[in-house]
Write a structure and sequence with these properties.
heterodimer; A: alpha+beta; 3 helices; 18% strand; B: 13 helices; globular
């Protein structure tokens, strides 16, 4: 049964989970750039320059993730290409 | 063997000084000879929270500069004769802090104290970096709120990279999470991050949860660390913090609302 109190508090119910999701995203992004070598941001920009010669993308479309597995470091590149019609002529 | 523990958070106003004062006092109550150092040069506050502001003669910077001996600068707590406060300088600037200068004071304290608690200033400037540099363990004070969690995460990164232990490749600083200003009722209505959320985000062990309480303000008004307020929830939570830090296995308290409020009963949930 829905109480009056439930009704009054309902519209704010989800903010804690929103907070958690936002933090998860930003922290993982900050960790990726923090822990990696200093050249990661530059690498990202140069990749953008190269890819821009062929198609139009934003800096945000390039995701760089560096994962450590023991002594082994894995550089993961995720580049989201746009739809065909956006290609540079 | 002596232990240096930094109380830090990145963000200001989350309860570092309150935690430092209660943690140090609690350790002293348990019989450990404890010194608590204020690293907040220019914005000294630990002396107020500890209730010794009128007895400050010399400060940390005086000791570093050789203008006073450590013995002259340390203020003995009125209630516990094994507890000492080293106040921050209110007038000097933080450039007086050097690794050599601070290190010398820490080394001297290590000779006669069991615990040396470093109350860090907010931010990640020199004072904060000096406060964490010599730490063996760290209390990360975090509020259940986005900016505080992010800043704590940042500080954890610095503890792992810019401390003496990190630079010399020694065993890493032992990190403990202390969640302050926790409101069980707001967690229950989904308005506040849960303890599990914060632990999951920061990935460190939980040492204590301090509930939001008016007792903290009363304590700072009176200049008596809240750990000595044995009837308040936050006083008891700080006592638990000290016990757990010393190795006791105690269940977390004050995580749930005790009972339904009169209004809630009336409206029937």
């Amino acid at each position: 049964m829905m109480s009056i109190l439930d009704y009054l508090t309902r519209r704010r119910k989800k903010t804690a989970s929103v907070a958690k999701e936002r933090l998860q995203l930003i922290l993982s992004r900050e960790h990726a750039t923090d822990s990696g070598p200093d050249y990661l941001p530059a690498l990202q920009k140069e990749l953008l320059a190269v890819i821009s010669k062929y198609t139009h993308i934003d800096l945000d479309d390039i995701k760089i993730n560096l994962e450590k597995d023991g002594d082994c470091e894995i550089l993961e590149l995720n580049i989201a290409l746009p739809e065909k019609q956006n290609e540079v002529a | 063997m002596s232990k240096v523990v930094v109380v830090t958070s990145g963000k200001g106003g989350v309860g570092k000084t309150t935690t430092s004062a209660s943690f140090a006092t609690g350790l002293a109550i348990r019989g450990h000879k404890t010194a608590v150092i204020d690293f907040d040069v220019g914005l000294r506050n630990l002396d107020l929270i500890m209730g010794c502001e009128r007895r400050v003669v010399y400060d940390f910077v005086n000791v570093i500069n050789g203008e006073a001996s450590l013995k002259q600068a340390l203020i003995r707590d009125k209630a516990h004769n094994n507890l000492f406060i080293l106040p921050a300088s209110q007038t000097r600037d933080k450039d007086a802090f050097t690794i050599e200068g601070v290190g010398k004071v820490i080394d001297e304290l290590r000779e006669s104290f069991d615990y040396i608690i470093c109350d860090s200033p907010a931010g990640i400037e020199k004072g904060a970096m000096m406060a964490l540099y010599f730490a063996d363990e760290a209390l990360i004070v975090t509020n259940p709120e986005v900016s505080s969690v992010r800043d704590s995460d940042r500080i954890l990164g610095l503890l792992g990279a810019k401390s003496k232990r990190a630079e010399e490749d020694l065993e890493p600083i032992k990190e403990h999470l202390v969640v302050t200003r926790y409101s069980a009722s707001r967690v229950e209505t989904g308005e506040m991050l849960t303890i599990e959320d914060i632990q999951e985000l920061l990935g460190i062990d939980l040492l204590a949860v301090i509930p939001e309480s008016g007792a903290v303000l009363h304590a700072s008004n009176a200049g008596v660390p809240v750990v000595r307020d044995e009837v308040s929830n936050s006083g008891q939570a700080y006592q638990d913090l000290v016990s757990r830090f010393l190795g006791e296995d105690l269940p977390m308290r004050f995580l749930d609302t005790k009972k339904k409020s009169f209004l809630k009963r009336l409206f029937g949930t």
